[in-house]
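> call design_seq(struct)
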């Protein structure tokens, strides 16, 4: 079973967190689920560099790596692969996003996060945010 090292962003604006909904994908168990935007770390990239690249690719959002703060690492084993997700807090003043991979986004307070249908790998991050706040 493959293990994927990925990054996820907890994008904060006015004390609300960006929640991005995936479209239909290869695996039904993650299709249409909400997630923290990010993606795979490519060879030679630091986690912050990977996250910066992914945010530009997925929603044309450029957040400087020195503005990213490590938050939490979560692991989850899906039926077809294992994921190790390193998340970072990222603050932005910009809510004007161009969605390239997600079908919609919502901005929610930490207390509202559990109202969404999250991908299983993101659930530990949701719990940490609810417990710690932002």
């Amino acid at each position: 079973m493959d293990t994927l090292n990925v990054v996820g962003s907890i994008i904060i604006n006015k004390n609300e967190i960006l929640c991005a909904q995936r479209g239909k994908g290869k695996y039904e168990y993650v299709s249409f689920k909400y997630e923290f935007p990010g993606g795979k770390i490519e060879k030679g990239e630091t986690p912050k560099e990977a996250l910066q690249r992914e945010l530009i690719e997925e929603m044309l959002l450029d957040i400087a790596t020195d503005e990213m703060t490590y938050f939490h690492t979560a692991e989850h084993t899906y039926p077809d692969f294992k994921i190790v997700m390193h998340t970072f807090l990222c603050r932005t003043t910009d809510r004007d996003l161009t969605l390239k991979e997600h079908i919609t986004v919502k901005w929610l307070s930490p207390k509202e996060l559990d109202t969404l249908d999250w991908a299983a790998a993101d659930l530990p991050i949701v719990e940490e945010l609810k417990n710690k706040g932002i």
